[in-house]
Input
Amino acid sequence: VSDRMKSRHVGFVGGTLDRADRLRGDPALLADAFAHPAARLLLLDGLDPVVDGSGLATVPLPRDIDPDQFGLLGLDAEGPLFVSLVPRALPHGAGVTSQVWSVAPMLSPDALAHYGAARSLVDWHARHRFCAQCGGATSPVRAGWSRRCGNCGAEHFPRVDPVVIMLAEHGGRALVGRQPRFPEGRYSALAGFVEVGETIEEAVSRELFEEAGVRTTRVRYVQSQPWPFPSSLMIACIADVEDDALTLDETELEAAMWVDRAGVAAALEGSPDAPFTAPPPMAVAYHLLRHWVGEGEV
Ligand SMILES: [Zn+2]
Output
């Protein structure tokens, strides 16, 4: 995979680990995984990635650990890969460590996906030490893929928060908007959390009406992306809408505009004449825009 290909890959997608759910609830198989001579521990610095010359840094799994405090991320050709469920800062100089966004372009797509899963899992454990039902202390079970309350016995699972991210389309143009926090010139697809009791299609329709005042007639799914900040699942869609008159919710959007395919293509190429700056290839919005441009080709 070339550096260019890596940098154009949607982030956190493409993990190749066998998640090995069959091991999680089987004490004998799980003990074998912990005892595997090639068992490795993925290093994190707090929640940040640690890289070495070959990608994500790992060390042999220490032998003197409490297995209950480690999660099994999965198996690959080498053996099992674990992560500590208790986030720890590495001592200074223990590895090349940095913020996600500076490390991500150095990683292969599968390594970045494994990091994203580990980050979401470790972060969830750190924030769910007490039972949401009774307030009792919880502890990890199922190789780190759930927690059980020591008081009432309730089992809690790592959460995934679905987010719809969508382009409205009308008359051969797509709707892009910008939030005040975006870098100068950046526009992207609109987005919002799915609410309880909603389908993906209903969430797309509601968000487009709330944020831009447009009425949706049809929704088509394009692709999805785990987004580990902390545990979103981005669901990318394209929505046909009734007309192009906009009524913006200015608490959400600073500006929005309709752009034709030539304009979107120019933005994706980074052309200085483009009507806006596209989101980075790491983001699913970039790939949604690219998909929409391709849809117009016959
Ligand atoms: Zn409880």
